[in-house]
Amino acid sequence: MKRAHKDVVVERFNKLDFHDDALLSLNIQPPPKFCEWLKRASESADITMSVCIGARHLAKLGLPDGKMATTHHDFIKPYSEEFPKVHWVSGQRFVEGPKIATSAGVTAGIDLALRVFERYFGRKKALEAAWVNEYQGTA
After folding, report:
1. What is the pTM of this model?
2. Domain residue ranges of the chain, discontinuous segments joined by +
3. Minimal CA–CA distance to 117: which of 24, 88, 133?
4. Out of 70, 71, 103, 122, which could bridge 108 as a Cys pair, Cβ 3.0 to 4.6 Å?
5. pLDDT digits (tens, 9 = 90+) for 102-131
């Protein structure tokens, strides 16, 4: 008999290590080991970015304090209350600063990724990357 999909998902979740991408997409507190790594990595990174509610992880570390950030529209208000030092912006697909960039949702994360790509490689290459990936969004 095949196991139910839910059982497989729970089993895989229980095996997650701090570096698994799936962990970042959940609105839970990541393990301290991950938080320590993220804080250290952001200090030397050109840019630290988050997608959707991943902005909460950055905010818990104080990375966007005093800066503008965005997240999924359902979380702007609660995050504004939880992290008052962050200037939460609604109605924008992404917010980009020199060191911190956040997107409003999962598909907005594609726009942000292409924008960051453009910072390094130029507009022409970013448009080529969007075309190669059949992306017809707002980039």
Report:
1. 0.76
2. 5-132
3. 133
4. 103
5. 999 899 999 999 999 999 999 999 999 999
With tokens 């594609």, the residue in question is: 110
Is 63 in contact with 56 (CB distance < 8 Å)? Answer: no
Amino acid occupying residue 81: E
**Fold type of domain 5-132:** Rossmann fold (3.40.50)
HEC-encoded secondary structure of 23-90: HHCCCCCCCHHHHHHHHHHHHHCCCEEECHHHHHHHHHCCCCCCCEECCCHHHHHHHHHHCCCCEECC
Rounded (10°) CA dihedral 90, 96, 99, 103: 60
Nearest to residue 53, comparing CAs of 13, 15, 91, 108? 108
DSSP helix/strand/coil, 103? strand
Pairing of strands 68-69, 87-88: parallel
Tokens at residue 69, please? 């950030």
Nearest residue to 114 via CA among 92, 135, 89: 135
User: Please, how many CA atoms are within 13 Å of residue 59, restricted to the half-sphere of its CB?
Assistant: 26
